[in-house]
Amino acid sequence: MLTNKVFERFLLPNAKLTENMAFVLYSFVKFNRPQSILEVGAGYSTLFIAQAIKDVQDEIWYDRIHKKAILKNKTKFYGKKYNPSYDVIDSDTHILSQIRNVFNQLGCFDNLNVKLHHTMYESFSHSKKYDLLWVDAGLHNKLVNYIDGMLSCLTSNGMLLIHSTCTNKEGRNFLQFLNSDSRFQDYEIVNMVEPHKVTQNSFTLIKKKVEYTVYTENS
Question: Please, what are the domains in the chain?
């Protein structure tokens, strides 16, 4: 895995805003293995999401070769090829150019299914469903208007993560809206805060409630 220090060499503009959130996203991808990802707002986190995809691919290859993860009751994900679609949208051509340069310099992301789109969120065509939607584009004052569209482009088990929601006025207004609207009773909503920071210090996870398969008795 490429670490925080390695990515800091490339001096992406928001490296100090998502320095911990990037690792959270990396872990979400490793843990959940989303088959389709949409990121609204490119930057530091883009590299970590791409790295997580690459690391899952390497782990699957290792398992196949060395037979280290043979399960008695295999899930549908066991041994399955992992090459998710990854759409990244941003209105800033400079940031997208930096991302392309980093990808080219690192060289390890050449075979990933990553597409960089120069567009605003409002103009992006949601032609498919996503397992993971990550929003970090300063849309807080518009989230109340966008939330229905964002949730509609999620798969049945999809997750929506929104950055910096808990300790700024517009983000707080959005969370109060979620809690007061009965339409969101069927969703799990989790807020997490980085207590050592005063800005860019939180995220909200929104996910539709689902029933999961029972595989074992007690483990």
Answer: 4-81+92-208 (3.40.50.150)
